[in-house]
Amino acid sequence: MSETKFLTPDEVTERYRGGVSVGTLRNWRAMKIGPSFVKIGKAVLYPLGELEAWDERNRVQCRASKRLDEHVDDRA
């Protein structure tokens, strides 16, 4: 059985290099937006797998990247 890894709000802030503050995470939890979390008593924990899924849902693909991919496909 694999163990699920969890991050605290402070660790989530570190993961996103300060781009998301602990206060922003708190506001998002109150508004039920942002990454999924688990609350046990007063402890708020973010499953690492949920953060990775949230990252994917928020991925932005630029047009330049698509054109580059098309050129790579043409060579194959």
UniProtKB/TrEMBL annotation:
Protein name: DNA-binding protein
Top-rank lineage group of the source organism: Bacteria
Keywords: DNA-binding
Keyword DNA-binding: yes
Taxonomic lineage of the native organism: Bacteria, Pseudomonadati, Pseudomonadota, Alphaproteobacteria, Hyphomicrobiales
GO terms, molecular function: DNA binding
InterPro entries in UniProt: DNA-bd_dom_put_sf
Keyword DNA-binding annotated: yes
